[in-house]
Amino acid sequence: xxxxxxNINQPEDPNTIVWKYLDLSKFxxxxxxxxxxxxxxxxxxxxxxxxxxxxxxxxxxxxxxxxPDFLDYYKTHRKNVVISSWHINEYESFAMWQIFTQKSxxxxxxxxxxxxxxxxxxxxxxxxxxGEVNYIDYKKEYIPFDNxxxxxxxxxxxxxxxxxxxxxxxxxxxxxxxxxxxxIDVDINQIIEKIYIHPKSENWYKNLVIELVKRLGFDFEIExxxxxxxxxx
Length: 233
Prior knowledge:
The protein is α+β, with helices and mostly antiparallel strands. The protein is built from seven helices and eleven strands. This is DUF2971 domain-containing protein.
């Protein structure tokens, strides 16, 4: 269930366009099971995920001098927070195609912030929050810790190109043992507005995606990315 927390920043306009770039196997998994995979926060490539900047860490160390459990909580909390990452952009991103899809066999889901909010199924057991990532200097800038989600909504400035917005859930109270992540129920027709096929893909691949989507019972607008379209001169 999507929960609106006024302390967590997100774009004001629900029509803000967001993207998810993924390979075909993950796309089929999404449609087949109608569930969105959320990765365990400490399994991301960035080792700083869910950690604090130096100024914040120094303050937490002082606070935990007489209460070591306070620091231990933040160290173990990362295992219980799961995240689905999306990219904010009015247009396609060449960089995102390069980073998140293999060779020429990938797809991009186009959606909006409002669609993400509505797609999170109300009956779900886990509370879901949506927040925009802030990019800061981890050696100089402070990350507030009055909200347990804040460490997961800050990243180093070197990741600014990601322009990330996240669906986040804390499953600590559910006493789960999470391996790489977990899947949550979503309204697939709501979360997907349009599908773009990799700009370097061939026609057979586009036809395959169209047929797969049809056989799985969906009717999305599908088109090939025009980032590699013929030049006009």
